Amino acid sequence: MKKKTIFGIIAVIIIAIAVFVFVQGNTSTSKAISVRTGEIKTETIVEKLSTTGTLIPNQSQSLAGTGNVVEVNVKVGDKVEKDKVLATYDNGFQLIAPFSGTITQINIKEKTPDTNAQLGKPSIQIDDLSTLKVQLQLSNSEAAAVTIDQNVEIINGNQKYQGKVAEKDPVAISTQSATGTTANLGAVVTFDQAPEHLFAGFDVDTEIITNTANNVLALPIEALTYNDNNEPIIFIIKNGVAKETKIKIGIQSDKLVEVTAGAKAGETVILSPSSDIKNNTEVTKE
Q: Per the database record, which ranges form the YknX-like barrel-sandwich hybrid domain (predicted)?
């Protein structure tokens, strides 16, 4: 009987130890935080500046006359050739097309005096609509990133066109609004090919390629965060543990960030690390 009792006690102890080890193992596992991960790779990064612009004619000219109008030879929408006489005045003055284009405004009538100069309006407006340009108004930070001849993607709905930055004003212009004074620098984007189905006066989206880095070390932008000193850091997973790592960064796109120091290709990083992730936090991949 005594032997049976001893064996029974030993069996209970063994079972208790097994249960304890099992529970501890599960507890240890449950401490690990499940995380999404990405990998540091060699990539090509294209940095873009996204902004909105307004479609404008390739050329535009406001013509002004003086005196009584004798004859008007065109109507709005007419396409005219360069040097065509558009209107004649009783003093012999004529409004002549300075280039081939489309008549977009007429503010005079026959047998009526032309008073548009006093009203600040053109007598006749002619626009070259054979192609269009995009007028941009750049903020201070945007202006610093934009230079002549940069490639631009022009987007209107699901239509995309290619172009280049053709002009950039030397000085910014200040405008007054209800919210205060705003300064913007003008720039113009031209199309590589004349666009179809676009109309002057409407807005379009533009993406200006401001920088490109080929075959550089890059990480997903979701992995980048900053410490209390505003230094860029990432969390690299090593042996199931998150390691806080300071890095140096270069250019970035909407998906990738260039890594110039602090990490190497092939390392696994945590994406969108939560506040629970600290140095040496145990983690598991989702």
A: 66-126
pLDDT above 80 (res 261): yes
Q: What is the pLDDT of residues 15-59, one digit of tens each?
A: 656 555 454 554 444 589 999 999 999 999 999 999 999 999 999
CATH, residue 166: 2.40.30.170
Rg (CA), the chain: 35
Query: What is the Cα–Cα distance from 53 to 46, expressed in whole angstroms?
Result: 21
Residues 279, 262: Cα–Cα separation, whole Å? 16
CA distance 262 to 249: 9
pTM of the predicted structure, to 2 decimals: 0.77
The count of domains in the chain is 4
DSSP strands (E only) in 73-202: 79-80, 85-89, 94-96, 101-106, 113-114, 124-138, 151-156, 159-168, 173-177, 180-191
